[in-house]
Amino acid sequence: VLGDGDVARLHRFFDANLTNFLALTGEPPRADEAERELRDTPGPEMPYREMRLLGFTDRSDAVASGALVAMTSVVADLIAEHVWHLGLFIVATALHGSGAARAIYADLERWIGERGAHWIRLGVAASKHACGALLGAIALRRCASAGRCRWDGRPTVPGAGRARPPGHGV
Fold first, then answer.
1. How much helix, strand and coil, in percent to the nearest 5, is found in the chain?
2. pTM of the full structure
3. Which long-range contacts (CB under 8 A, 24 or more apart) does 103-108 make?
4. Tens-digit pLDDT profile for residues 92-108
5. Which of these, 4, 83, 95, 111, could form a disulfide with 100 (CB 3.0-4.6 Å)?
6. 53 and 71 in contact (C-beta within 8 Å)?
């Protein structure tokens, strides 16, 4: 679980993996992107039980550097009991195509299921980004969107997510 003491490490990860931000917003991460991610919560109209920002390290290198290879935000019981939401899910660009995203997602799905989730909602932004391979692997159907969504005043690519039971993935 990432916390206030991980701001610099999370910022280094964001800077090292610009592809994700450029694909979603057309811009690199802001100078305060890590702090914002650590403090961002759903609005009051979206009740939830718990929110965590999770960081993943390379098991062979975790003790040596502590460098992140992936991160995600996880929201428990978002709007409805037993429905968990995965927000931002970034895997290091250097690992794209390696199967790492599938393995990390499988571990994450198992972990979420063990904590009581009946459904997982994965927020998806449609783009030419490498997430397409992961989405195919976890059998999510990308939904079409007629317009552009906006978050923090910056345009993002059209897309949507679907909820599905844990264990129906990788």
1. 30, 20, 45
2. 0.73
3. 103/170, 104/56, 104/70, 105/134, 105/137, 105/138, 105/169, 105/170, 106/169, 106/170, 108/54, 108/72, 108/74
4. 999 988 989 889 988 99
5. 95
6. yes
